[in-house]
Amino acid sequence: MTEPKILVFDIFGTVVDWHRSIVREVLARHPQVDADAFALAWRAGYQPAMETVRSGGRGWVKLDTLHREILDRILPRFGLDHLDDTQRHALNLVWHRLDPWPDSVRGLTRLKSRFTICSLSNGNLGLLTDMAKRAGLPWDCVLGAEVFRTYKPDPRVYRGAAEVFDVEPAKVMMVAAHQDDLAAARACGLQTAYIERPMEFGAARPKDVSPDSANTVHARDLMHLADLLGCA
Question: How far apart are the C-alpha atoms of 216 and 171, rounded to whole Å?
């Protein structure tokens, strides 16, 4: 493989554990609620909400707003429609407070020693910056869909990342725990690294993390990716 210059990372599920983080916070705030089901329901609205923007059905809306709209829709299902605006806003900010996977900070730090590392997430910049500050994620640069005014897997996001750094797409490696994200990146000429996150949706719903030979690299986690890419 040609050595990449830039590594760009999906965030939700790849670098941070959204499911466990949301379950923890919902249990702390509302212990009577099925926190596992709540987390899954909130996440289930993610792609349909972004598709309204990608399809041109509405203008650009940042992910914080989409998360809040999904939250407002699911609250009655869980008996929480009584929450006022302040309480809803505070709960919505859980996406800014997601915990990293145990290997993430150390793995990113090793990868940073050899490559430029950058987020390439559907999260908005404020969300990603708050998350990085809290979790100690050592990005060289924070990029997100907000920069390109569309959501992955729109090709403009992947090609835009290469343009930001003024490199050919082949010098950029997309790192993600989602094969559809990687397939879209490959179609734009990026290299791809798959990261196994079998517990992304919780221990009761293990993911299939079988290798796809179309990816440039397949790694168990970010520490393993650092090994495979020759980082100290």
Answer: 12
> Among candidates 152, 114, 147, which has minimal Cα distance to 128?
147
CB 46 within 8 A of CB 68: no
Whole-angstrom distance, CA of residue 197 vs CA of residue 136: 20
Sheet holding 141-144, edge to edge: 141-144, 116-121, 6-9, 172-176, 191-195, 217-219
End-to-end CA distance of the chain: 19
69-116 tens-digit pLDDT: 999 999 999 999 999 999 999 999 999 999 999 999 999 999 999 999
CATH code of domain 18-96: 1.10.150.240
Domain positions in the chain are: 6-17+99-228, 18-96
Q: Provide the pLDDT for residue 136.
A: 98
- The reported pTM is 0.97
Which contiguous run of DSSP H or E holds residue 119?
strand 116-121
6-17+99-228: CATH superfamily: HAD superfamily/HAD-like (3.40.50.1000)
Residue linked to tokens 């590594």: 7
